[in-house]
Each structure stands twice: as C-alpha cells, then as structure tokens.
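step 4 of 6: structure.
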Amino acid sequence: MNSILFLILRRLRRPLILIIVCFAIAIFGLTLMPGLDNEGRPWHMSIFDALYVISYTATTIGFGEIPYAYSQSQRLWLTISIYLTVIPWFYAIGKIITLLQDTALRMAITTERFSRAVKELQEPFYILCSYGESASVLARTLDEKGMRVVVIESQQERLNELDLAETYSVIPHLCADAKLPENLIRAGVHHPLCSGVVTLTDNDEVNLAVAVAVKLMNPALPVLARAERDDIAANMASFGTDHIINPYTLFGDQLAMRVHAIGTYILHEWLTDVPGDTLLPPETPPRGRWVVCGYGRFGKSVVENLERENITTTIVEAMPELTGCDTCIVGSGTESKTLLEADIENAVGIVAGTDNDINNLSIVMTAYELNPKLFVVIRKNRRHNDTLFRQFNADITMQPTEIIAHECLAHMIAPLLAQFLTLVRNQSNSWANQLISELVSVVGETVPERWAITVSKDKTPGIAELLSKNISVSLHNLSQDPADRNKQLNLVPLLLLRDNIPMLVPPPATALRLDDRILFCGIPDARSALNISVNNAKTLTYIVDGIEVPDSMIWCWLKKKLQ
Amino acid sequence: MNLEKVIFGFFIVLAMTLNFGFFLGDIDNPSHHHVYELYAAIVVSLIATVLKFGDRTHVGAILLSTSLAADLQLITAAILWAALSGKMDEPSLITYIVSLSGGALMANFVSVILLISETIGQRR
C-alpha cells in the first residue's frame, strides 16, 4: 500500500505545486487590492478572508462578494484569479482521474491486494500456477472440499471466468507470469501454511521454470508439475519435483490397465473421482487388432501400452516423417480410403488421437460407418467441444484435463492415496474385484470420501491418550460408531503406513501404534463420526470397553466410593 | 549541476530562512512579526513538502517528515491568527504564533542539516 501512496504523490507533484503557487499568488494579490467597507472606509482583505474567497472561487462554488461589496480593483484581481486558479484546479482533478485509470497503478493496486489476501490466509492452501481447464476443475473441487487455493494466471480472460465462478471461499488470484519468482513469493511460496504448488500450464517450459524456482526457494514444498516431454520431465525430476504428471502416459497406463485388469482400473477410477459422483461400470476394451489414428505423444503412449498387452496395432498418421513412425499408413484417417487401407473392417477398436477435435470426431464417424462393432477410443482436446463428444458417446473419451485433475486430486486430498494406488497396480485383478465388492457393500455405489489420519498426540489425542494408558486400540475400534458401539461406521481402512512400511487393507484386528498413518474411504458421515472418537478419549474408551467413563469430579468420587 | 536539485535546495533553504525571518524579533511584539512573512513561509514550506513527495530513499522519507512537521506548526499558527485575532490581546496572541513558528523553525533546521549532510556524503 505504501508504494502505491507514494506513486500517487509523486505523479501529483506537478499539479500540486502548480495549485499552491497559483493560490499563493491569487491570495496575496487579493489582500493588496484596496477596497471599501460598508461605511466607505478604506479596507484591505485579511489573508484568511482572501484564502476563503479564492478557495470557493477556484472550486467554482462562488459564494459572491464577502464580506463587503468589492471595489473595481478587487474585482479586477479576482477576474485574473479565476483564470489563474480554476485552470490548475481542473488540471489537478484531471490528473487524479487519469492516474486512477492508469494501468500501471491499477496493476500495483491489484498486486498489493493479492499479496495481502495471501498473507492473511489462516488455513493451509495450494498455489495453482495457471487457471486452464484442468486447473479450474482442480480449484473447484478443492474449494468444495474446503481447501484454500491461490491462483496465478497470465491470461486475464481466464481469471474473469474465476471472478464470475461461485466459490465457497475467496480464491485470491493475480494476473501475472508465474515464471517470475517475485510473483511466486507474492502467491505465498514462503508462507508457513502453503502446502504445495501445482503448475499445470500447457507449456512445459513454464512448468519447468516454476518447479525449479519453487524448489530453489522452498525445497520442502511439494510440487506437482505437468510435463509432456521426456527431457523436461527428467529435468524436473533432477530438481526434486515431487509429482510429474504426463496426461498421455497416464492415459496409456490406464488404457492398458483397462485391457488387462478392469477391476484395478475401476478401483482406481472410483477412488480418484470427485466424491459423491456415481460411476458407470466401464467396458473392457476387446483384444484383437486396433487402428490408431495419429501417432503423436498420445498415439505413441497408446500403441506402446497396447503392444505390451500383446494387442497388434495399425497406425494411421498424416505426417510420418515428423512423428517418426516407420510402418504406418499415410493419411489423416478422416476419409474412408485411408481407413479401408488400414483394414478397419477387420479391426476391433479404433483410437482417434490427433490434436484436432473435429478431425477425431470425423475419424470415428467414418470408421463407425465402415464397421459398427468397433470399440471407440477418442481423444478430446478442448472442453468446450463437450456437447459434440457427448452426442457421439464413444466407449472411452480421453480427456487430458480430467486425467490431470484426478491425478492431482489423488496427491493433494490424501497423499497416502497415491501410494495406495501404486500398490494396487501390482495386485491381481481378482484382488481388486474383491476389494470393490467389499467397498460397495460398506459405502454404497457413489464415489466415497478418502481421508487419512495420523496417530499422534496433536492429531488424534483420543487414541494417543488410550495408548499411553496401555489400552490397546485396534482398527476395528475405529470403525465402530461412537453413538452405539455395536453399529459399524460406513468406512473401510485401505492402507496403514507404519515406519514407512505400507500394509494394504490392514485386518481389523491390527492394533494401532503411535505415528501410524491410516488411509480410510467411506461416506462423509462416517468421516465426521470417526473424528469424534479419535479426538475424544472418553468416547474411545466407551468404544473399546463399553464403559462410560465418568468425567466430572463428583461422578469420579462417587464411582470410587461405590467400588 | 542539475536544475532540479537547485530548485529543491532553494525551496528547502528558503522555507527555513523565511521561517527564521518571521521568528526573529521580540516574541510578544506584534510589530516585529509581519503576517505576510508567515504567509510566505507557509507557501514555501508547502511547496517544499510537495517537492519531497515520492522520494523512496531513507533520507527522502526523513526530509518529508520534517517538512510535514513544519507545515503542521505553521498552519496551526495561521489558524490561531485567523481565528483569535481581535478576540484576545495582541501580545499574548503573537506569543503563541511566534512560539509555534519557532517549533517549525527547528523542523526546517533539521531538514536543512539533512540536506547538507547528504550533499557532503556525495562523492563529488
């Protein structure tokens, strides 16, 4: 705020001096002009009276001739004074108005407001270094979950969208280049409550710059960065970026997972989706020969993963020399000739993976006419083409935006979840299916909440107190309802981390120890009920032993007497 | 030689000298203290204040604050004069006014000392 005040003062120096000088001359002159009072005696205006007259004249208020009617010479001087003072006065007002509309000043004011809003944050928050399609989904979900978000974005149009969006809490945002360290500092990289930086721009260089800058300024801060090129990803990793997100690799992985372990895939989707949504059971992609149109980063990832699953592919690519594929059919795939050349009639699936939405739609429509039994995977690049894609209703619509957002959410909402999912990928499909049926029986069909608790004095005082009294608390106790210990809460412990050794779906009999970290999934009510029992030793004792422990002095004394 | 610095120094020194001129004389003798001199001192002091706006250095900040102190006392003196003239006896009124201007003189004096010390601190 300081710098803005001085910026204004400095710009106003010239008009202010002009006003002071003109007023001084006008006032001085007016006191010198001889006048006559009501009784015809010679009279000179005092300095104070002159200041009064000039003030109301210069501001064009004009009260008239006070205190006596003026003499000719006083009127003559006032005429001069009017032109002398009114013009600088308007000049100064004009200058102030210009200054208020000055872009540099407005910029300074918004920047100042932004840094103050960030400084005043009292809750943990994440910094989003863009507000593109995936970042906006992320911001909305985090906001719904009651987590605070700060946004830096270089395009004002996107921020206008954020301005109009209805959010639960205020999202401080700044139109600035996130690559500049000073903007990152304004966004709170050094803030003690900053819990991480997420950089999801579609420009790898920018993401790299942000990741490097954050890691240099505050190495302890987790960084989630999007990177599509391998060299950039490697560079980020060398700087200690915590999570590097490549939407194409992720999708390829997921597609492969869908082919060979649909159960694992469902579990993955179910636990990373937005809580409260309902998921439709996905179809398993058929095995056989696939046609892949577009051999860019997306196409390469798909082909690589399909081939790992022993599925043969036929590649159709318009510019083979640019993308570096040797055995492909040249063409865009939008016309039936190329598709027939790729023997679409005998293929089981088609992947439309170019970076042009209209071409992708055209490819699958043409292919569909030639072979209606095809399994269709289509890449969607722009969110505003949503309606078109919904109309077509492909078997799988790959949307980089959502993949990135889901991946980030998994890391941000419950960091243990990411670890859990990695472990799940190594498990068999039947294991995953069994877990799903168990989860569905407990939490229902909608996407559950995921959360983690840490057994410690600060985070879960209830458990810690019982453990310090050598009373054993098991995982089963945590899933009992604090209102009635015979009832079960609708939650399932998914992962227990003890001394950095993970235990997948720990058995209910597991006794808890200090510093254990447990990942749960369940319905929101179960989450709040669990909060009660882990924070309150009395409730937890009731759950463990079925005894209501007396709280107050009188009851304690009475109980002792009665025993 | 820089015209801006000449003007800057001129106004700061003039503010002090005018103030001193008004202050000089018997403290309770109205004929020793002319109203136009106070008027000129206020005008010059205001101009000096505005000239000091926007200098973000530490010395600049102190210069501005001394000027503001001088303005405050001079304007208070002028208000007293305008409000109380004719209502109380002249010697005691002029005593108030001159003592206030004496306070302003101190502030202006500090301002000039800062200006000189900064000038001496310059390499050339």
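step 5 of 6: annotate
 - The first strand of chain A starts at residue 35 and ends at 36.
 - Chain A has 25 helices and 18 strands.
step 6 of 6: archive
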